[in-house]
Amino acid sequence: MKTALVIMAAGIGSRFGGGIKQLEPVGPNGEIIMDYSIHDAIEAGFNKIVFIIRKDIEADFREVIGDRIEAVCAQRGVEVAYAFQSLDAIPAGNTVPEGRTKPWGTGQAVLTVKDIVKEPFAVINADDYYGKEAFAKLHGFLQNPGADNAYCMAGFILKNTLSENGGVTRGVCKVDGNGYLTDVVETSNIVKTADGAAVEGVAIDAESYVSMNMWGLRPAFMEILEQGFEEFFRTAAKENPLKAEYLLPIYIGQLLREGKVTVQVLETRDKWFGVTYREDKPAVVESFRKLIADGVYSVPLFG
Hints:
Helices cover 30% and strands 26% of the residues. It is an alpha/beta fold. The strands form two sheets. Strands 1, 2, 3, 4, 6, 7, 8, 9, 10, 11 and 12 form an eleven-stranded mixed β-sheet that branches. Strands 5-13 form a two-stranded antiparallel ribbon. Helix 1 (33-44) packs across helix 4 (132-143). The protein is globular.
């Protein structure tokens, strides 16, 4: 069965301190984090790659990764496509609020691939390293027949996803005894502590599952997501027109509470890392150096 990997790469990287953080080199031959995600996805069996970007970064994106990955994928029979997230791609009958500068969040980002992705698909962030295990597990789930509303999520352990350089936002998960997600609580400013993790000085369970925006979804989800975006504009976007965001984990959490979908949590013990802050980069470079030394990746990566 054909399966697609959808990579959300339209974020502006405001906390990174300038530059486009998704395009920062971290590997020995100038590889960026996306190179490793695409490598792991193809190795797991995904055979379509879809980049979600903004029009204003298209030239840089194609120069740094897009053209190169298209060549790699052509050799392996893997399709490549692009979708573009923009501020004005909103439900009919609405207008962009005056003063709004940012697009509408990860839920809107995924909606941009509605006419491109017609197969089961995974969604990831461009600037997160997830590890091989998660891609293999998601691909296995998506290859099995399932209900149109039966999804999955890579469940990372909170302590394996924290930054040494500041607070992070994570979707902290509630999971039932059968391994199914019951809720996602978007939690901001989680910091690493000597004992584990805390928010505003209050300790939280560092062994909790968290969502790193790595989902396994089915094509019928697009219609549900579009309906949710229309509802978002009737409610949250009216209440906070300049800052409201239509976030994928928040909306999936809402669907779970309403009993409209199921999400199986696929545990991964791999250590997540990413470039949230500019100070994160040296640690990410060192992490890839160690993975290469341990034989997880070769040099050149796609050799």
